[in-house]
Amino acid sequence: MKSFTKGLETETQLLVAIGAAVASGCIPCLESITGMARAENIDEKKMRAAAIIGQFVKDQPAGHMKAKSDELLGTHLQSASNQVECPAESKKTPAAPNEDSNDAGRACNCS
């Protein structure tokens, strides 16, 4: 593979690209870049480390937003990895008009 820039060697560029693909959630990018990295015989451990870093970078803003929402709105948001179904498609019965909608159908048993 030809380097995209003269400042970084091919291996570094591909490892950065793997992390960026994971962070951006681009599956076609990840598939393509992983193929290029393997063609360049880049170590699998390095590629896994790049993906882990990309996922960390992706998750941080979501975690901070969850914490801020919980603080400002009194929500008890769960990360997507802890949810079994989409909240918008929940089969739980909606709260009756006179019930406190914050407590109705709460499955997490938090506060």
Characterization of this structure:
The protein has 111 residues and is mainly α. The protein has a domain at 10-77. Helices cover 52% and strands 0% of the residues. The protein contains 3 helices and no strands. It has helices at residues 10-24, 27-39, 44-73. α1 (10-24) packs antiparallel against α2. The N and C termini lie far apart (55 Å). Residues 99-111 have low confidence and may be disordered.
What is the secondary structure topology, with strand pairs?
Layout: H1 10-24, H2 27-39, H3 44-73
The end-to-end span amounts to: 55 Å
Number of strands: 0
The radius of gyration computed from the alpha-carbon positions, rounded to a whole number of angstroms, is 21 Å
**Main sheet specs:** none
Helix content: 40-55%
Strand portion: under 5%
State the shape.
elongated
What does the average pLDDT come to?
A: 81
Quaternary structure state of the chains depicted: single chain
Order of helices and strands: HHH
Low-confidence runs of at least 5 consecutive residues? 99-111
| Tally of contiguous helical segments | 3
SS-derived structural category: mainly alpha
Write a brief structural summary:
Helix content is 52%, strand content 0%. The protein is built from three helices and no strands. Residues 99-111 have low confidence and may be disordered.
